[in-house]
Write a structure and sequence with these properties.
Layout lengths: L2 H20 L2 H16 L5 H18 L4 H19 L2
Helix pairs in contact: 1-4, 2-3, 3-4
Length: about 90
């Protein structure tokens, strides 16, 4: 998959596909952050969730570097984190 295709697929994932399936990313990440905060006993933010999901996908990519979905998801999570950071 070339870089343009990865970027286009990530854009579709965060603005159409997964948004329709999972709802608003910020709301979803805030809910995840609340659960993780309770579990860890530490304050976790929606921004932290986006950053940690990038790390999750990085670990997955190490296990299977030919699976393009990991890179698509990393780009998508980075875009969401960047948008969240803009509002911080």
């Amino acid at each position: 998959m070339d870089r343009k295709s990865i970027l286009e697929a990530a854009n579709d994932a965060i603005t159409k596909d997964r948004a329709a399936t999972h709802g608003n990313a910020e709301q979803s990440f805030s809910m995840i952050a609340a659960y993780w905060s309770i579990y860890l006993g530490e304050n976790v933010t929606a921004f932290d969730v986006a950053q940690m999901m990038i790390l999750f996908k990085t670990a997955r990519a190490q296990g299977n570097p030919s699976h393009a979905d990991n890179f698509i998801d990393q780009v998508g999570y980075a875009a969401l984190a960047g948008e969240m950071a803009d509002g911080m």
